[in-house]
Design a protein that fits this description.
This protein has 259 residues and is an alpha/beta fold. The protein folds into 2 domains: 6-167, TIM Barrel (Alpha-Beta Barrel), CATH 3.20.20; 190-253, Up-down Bundle (Four Helix Bundle (Hemerythrin (Met), subunit A)). The chain contains 14 helices and 5 strands. The chain has helices at 6-18, 33-37, 48-61, 80-91, 112-115, 123-132, 147-153, 164-168, 176-179, 190-196, 198-206, 211-215, 228-239, 247-253; strands spanning 24-28, 66-71, 97-101, 138-141, 159-161. Strand 4 (138-141), helix 7 and strand 5 form a beta-alpha-beta unit. Helix 3 (48-61) packs parallel to helix 4 (80-91). It is globular, with a radius of gyration of 21 Å.
């Protein structure tokens, strides 16, 4: 969620908890002009007391965890000590986890997209934060593309957040159970995953949902595989046909053919 009004955020947290969400994460990382105009997102790193008030209000309203996602700094407030000052104040409000994007944000001069790539990654600052605050749950984010990188980070922090790579290459997670959790089971193939989506698609559409809302995140399922362009083109074209439903995906794999 995003905001800077403790009472409003507490109410929203209650609504989310009633809807079944198992965590509330407060956005203190987005640097867009639109977000700044509402006085939330990354600009709130300059107001740690306000963030702490928001966290405390939500903690008092719900039983589910309240977490904060933030940058390592903003503008000229980007030293390690600046981040520590922010975390120390917010931690006092009993924040359950800090998810740290290991880049600073420029509130002026860079677009949100540029702020995801141009400021250099400073993983060591996040590692140091965990060393200095071992009792806090620290999660690292930014530039993570492979499970090998995840394993390296887990040697220093409590958790790893994968953002864009989750959308760009969702099959990245096929072997998480084996690589991260040591489970001994065969990962599903890409076609098996596509077919496993069929019951969800049917349920979604029976509730009035649009097919493309489900198939669009599936476009990258075959990233790196021969035929991925054909798969994307097929899903894009067929999902927009009037009356199209789960059969779009079912027919593609009913004969186990390659696309």
């Amino acid at each position: 969620m995003g905001g800077d009004d403790p009472k409003a955020l507490a109410l929203c947290a209650q609504i989310a908890e009633d809807m079944g969400y198992d965590e509330i994460n407060l956005n203190v990382g987005c640097p867009s002009d639109r977000v700044q105009n509402g006085n939330f997102g990354a600009c709130l790193m300059a107001q740690p007391e306000r963030v702490a008030d928001c966290v405390a209000a939500m903690r008092g309203a719900v039983q589910i965890p309240i977490t904060v996602k933030h940058r390592i700094g903003i503008d000229d407030r980007d030293t390690y000590e600046d981040m520590v000052a922010f975390v120390r104040v917010v931690a006092a409000a009993r924040c359950d986890r800090f998810s740290v994007h290991a880049r600073k944000a420029w509130l002026q001069g860079l677009s949100p997209k540029e702020n995801r790539n141009i400021p250099p990654l400073r993983y060591e600052d996040v590692y140091r934060l965990k060393q200095d605050f071992p009792h806090l749950a620290i999660e690292i984010n930014g530039g993570v593309q492979t499970l090998e990188q995840v394993c390296v980070h887990l040697g220093h922090v409590d958790a790893v957040m994968i953002g864009r790579a989750a959308y760009d290459n969702p099959y990245l997670f096929a072997t998480v159970d084996q690589v991260i959790y040591g489970e001994d089971k065969r990962p599903l193939t890409r076609p098996e995953i596509a077919e496993a989506m069929l019951p969800y698609i049917e349920r979604w559409m029976s509730q009035g949902g649009k097919l493309h809302a489900v198939t669009r995140p599936m476009l990258q399922l075959f990233t790196g595989e021969p035929g991925t362009r054909a798969w994307k083109r097929y899903l894009t074209e067929q999902s927009s046909v009037l009356g199209a439903g789960a059969e779009v995906v079912r027919l593609r794999f009913s004969t186990r053919r390659r696309f």
